[in-house]
């Protein structure tokens, strides 16, 4: 009896195995055929829908949808090409333009470092200085001149309330600084930058009167059209200071970059090599203000 029972189990097991094998041999191919049929059906539907879209688009626009896509693609390529040409054109405009690196409010403990960096790249700059009578500052004034840079004036006191209180106060401050710098360096400066710029809003005197006075003295004043942002109160990183300068380079003429030479402007000093290298890579001429420089004015004396 046990033998008969075991044989029945074996037969039953063989039947299950055969059933599974038959399913694999027949079921999988049938499934694949079904999927292929579905895919073909979907493709036919897609082509049919595409044809309907094309017909509708043609009826409304007079051109096929595929032609419109091709035209859009062509326009995109032309736009990219125009952008590239525009970039090349800007580069051509920039190449050879002058950039004037200017430093206000010095001298300071950083002046010698700034001078060393400028020497390292054989670049000349302009220092709009204020009046300081200590020996270190006197040596800094001399070093600026002796190392081939331009010494400009930025008021003796740099105290807006006194400087801009009257025309007489401005004149007194001006002559004090000019005579002092001549005494120290043997050079009489002829370039001036107003504290706060010619467009400052704190002067109690009409700025045009001060401009006229400078013109009578044979002095040219210079504002700026680019800035590192080192005096805005924002905590710019060294990289950001450099990027601020590069982003605002004048593409249609010369650029006057405003920076500051004060003890707390460590990041300005650190950014200077980055700024110089980027400007030189752009084939720009880094020069100091001179008699041939075309000044940037925020306001003009003859403005209405």
TrEMBL record:
Record keywords: RNA-binding included? no
Q: Which domain of life is it from?
A: Bacteria
A Pfam match is Polysacc_deac_1
A biological process from GO:
carbohydrate metabolic process
Name the residues that span the membrane.
20-44
The question of whether Protease is a record keyword is answered with no
A single GO molecular function term of this UniProt record: hydrolase activity, acting on carbon-nitrogen (but not peptide) bonds
Quote the protein name from its UniProt record: Peptidoglycan/xylan/chitin deacetylase, PgdA/CDA1 family
Lineage runs:
Bacteria, Bacillati, Bacillota, Clostridia, Lachnospirales
């Amino acid at each position: 009896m046990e033998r008969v029972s075991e044989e029945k189990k074996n037969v039953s097991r063989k039947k299950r195995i055969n059933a599974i094998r038959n399913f694999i041999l027949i079921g999988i191919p049938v499934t694949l055929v079904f999927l292929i049929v579905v895919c073909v059906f979907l493709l036919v539907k897609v082509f049919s829908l595409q044809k309907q879209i094309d017909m509708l688009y043609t009826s409304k626009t007079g051109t096929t949808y595929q032609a419109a896509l091709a035209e859009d693609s062509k326009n995109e390529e032309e736009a990219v090409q125009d952008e590239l040409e525009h970039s090349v054109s800007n580069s051509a405009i920039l190449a050879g333009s002058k950039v004037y690196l200017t430093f206000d409010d010095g001298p300071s403990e950083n002046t010698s470092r700034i001078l060393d960096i400028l020497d390292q790249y054989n670049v000349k700059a302009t220092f709009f200085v204020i009046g300081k009578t200590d020996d270190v500052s006197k040596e800094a004034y001399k070093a600026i001149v002796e190392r081939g840079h331009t010494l400009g004036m930025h008021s003796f006191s740099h105290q807006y309330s006194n400087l801009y209180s009257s025309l007489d106060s401005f004149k007194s401050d001006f002559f004090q600084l000019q005579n002092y710098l001549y005494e120290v360096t043997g050079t009489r400066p002829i370039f001036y930058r107003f504290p706060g710029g010619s467009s400052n809003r704190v002067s109690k005197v009409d700025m045009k009167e001060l401009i006229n006075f400078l013109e009578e003295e044979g002095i040219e004043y210079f504002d700026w059209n680019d800035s590192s942002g080192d005096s805005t109160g924002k905590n710019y990183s060294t990289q950001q200071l450099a990027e601020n300068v590069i982003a605002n380079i004048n593409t249609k003429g010369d650029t006057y970059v405003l920076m500051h030479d004060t003890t707390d402007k460590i990041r300005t000093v650190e950014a200077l090599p980055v700024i110089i290298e980027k400007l030189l890579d752009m084939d720009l001429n880094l020069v100091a203000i001179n008699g041939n420089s075309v000044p940037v004015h925020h306001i003009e004396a003859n403005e209405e």
